[in-house]
């Protein structure tokens, strides 16, 4: 950290600026013909009626008082709140704002459950309002970049979580485009991979925890809300079609375009992620969808504890149906 040297340079610049102003005033006073009323006023303001030593002491004391009071106010207004909140995951701006204006007013707690493009689209709309948003996302996706990462690193699917994190990002411009960037150079081992998926995977390897990797990515993107996996287990989505055929893998189900009888997860009844269950129980409003009914919404309901939490939660439940027909699903 180079804070001290830049602070010293800033103070040095202020001193030089003050000297330059003093030199300019002295030069003007000695060389310009100033009318008598003005010179009398200047003499009064600059305390010319006092001995030079007394003037020096008064100005010195005044400057020390100003410096001391300003530093005290700076400490109490900025440094104090920061130190009082250590350790804290709050940003500096949030800490100072909360200190000056009080804690943020309680927001309506909205939980959105789903996955895919539908959920991320919903989140982009919700973040424009004063809401405490929690997205609970399926981790059963196994197509494209996500599928390759899951097979190589044995982690839950990062793809839908990445899209939801970007959707809730405070600024989606450059960082959002970076996380959604997909390598497309033919013949490259990175071809088809999303940078965001690789980022979450690398963080999982570094931290040793998919849960922490998602949390740290949320901090990097400064998201407005929370994005939680419905489970931390590496699950596979399977489906039984009306003709009796069984398909394994979310991508296989999506490609078949046949009527689905039911879906299930392997291994069966994976443990629900505790923060996700808690968010459902404490929600003021729960939204399911939009998105693919069988491959984005229902996989979350097959996680142990999710359905029970939905039943026990007193919050109104809203299902957002797709606006267009999706073959084999809705």
Structure characterization notes:
The chain has about 325 residues and is of the alpha/beta class. The protein folds into 2 domains: about 40-105, no CATH class; about 110-320, CofD-like domains (Rossmann fold). The protein is about 55% helix and about 10% strand. It has 14 helices and 8 strands. It has a 5-stranded parallel β-sheet, with helices on both faces. A 3-stranded antiparallel β-sheet has the order 5-4-6, with helices on one face. Strand 4 (about 235-240) and strand 5 (about 245-250) form a beta hairpin. Helix 7 (about 160-165) runs parallel beside helix 10 (about 210-220). The model has no long low-confidence stretch (mean pLDDT about 85).
Compose a concise summary of this entry.
53% of the residues lie in helices and 12% in strands.
Compile the SSE list and pairings.
Elements: H1 3-31, H2 36-45, H3 52-84, H4 92-101, E1 108-114, H5 116-126, E2 131-137, H6 144-153, H7 159-167, H8 174-180, H9 195-207, H10 210-221, E3 226-229, E4 236-241, E5 246-248, H11 250-256, E6 260-266, H12 274-281, E7 285-288, H13 293-301, H14 306-312, E8 317-319
Parallel strand pairs: 1-2, 1-7, 2-3, 7-8
Antiparallel strand pairs: 4-5, 4-6
Helix pairs in contact: 3-4, 5-7, 7-8, 7-10, 9-10, 12-14
């Amino acid at each position: 950290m180079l804070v001290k040297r830049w602070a010293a340079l800033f103070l040095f610049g202020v001193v030089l600026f003050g000297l330059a102003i003093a030199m300019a005033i002295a030069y003007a006073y000695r060389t310009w013909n100033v009318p008598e009323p003005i010179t009398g006023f200047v003499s009064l303001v600059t305390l010319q009626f006092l001995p030079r030593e007394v003037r020096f002491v008064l100005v010195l004391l005044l400057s020390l008082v100003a410096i001391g009071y300003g530093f005290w106010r700076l400490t109490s207004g900025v440094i104090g709140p920061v130190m009082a909140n250590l350790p804290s995951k709050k940003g500096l701006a949030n800490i100072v704002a909360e200190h000056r204006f009080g804690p943020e007013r309680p927001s309506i707690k909205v939980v959105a459950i789903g996955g895919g493009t539908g959920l991320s689209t919903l989140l982009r709309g919700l973040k424009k309002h004063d809401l405490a948003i929690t997205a609970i996302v399926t981790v059963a996706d196994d197509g494209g970049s996500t599928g390759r990462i899951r097979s190589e690193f044995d982690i839950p699917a990062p793809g839908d979580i990445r899209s939801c994190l970007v959707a809730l990002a405070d600024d989606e411009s450059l960082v959002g485009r970076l996380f959604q960037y997909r390598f497309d150079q033919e013949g490259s081992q990175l071809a088809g991979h999303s940078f965001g998926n690789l980022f979450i995977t690398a963080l999982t390897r570094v931290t040793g925890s998919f849960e922490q990797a998602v949390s740290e990515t949320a901090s990097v993107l400064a998201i407005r809300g929370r994005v939680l996996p419905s489970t931390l287990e590496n699950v596979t989505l399977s489906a039984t079609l009306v003709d009796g055929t069984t398909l394994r893998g979310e991508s296989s189900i999506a490609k078949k375009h046949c009527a689905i009888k039911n879906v299930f997860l392997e291994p069966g009844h994976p443990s629900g992620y505790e923060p996700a269950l808690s968010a459902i129980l404490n929600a003021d409003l729960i939204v399911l969808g939009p998105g693919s009914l069988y491959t984005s919404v229902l996989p979350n309901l097959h996680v142990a504890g999710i359905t029970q939490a939905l039943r026990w939660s007193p919050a109104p439940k809203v299902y957002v149906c797709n606006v267009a027909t999706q073959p084999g699903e809705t």
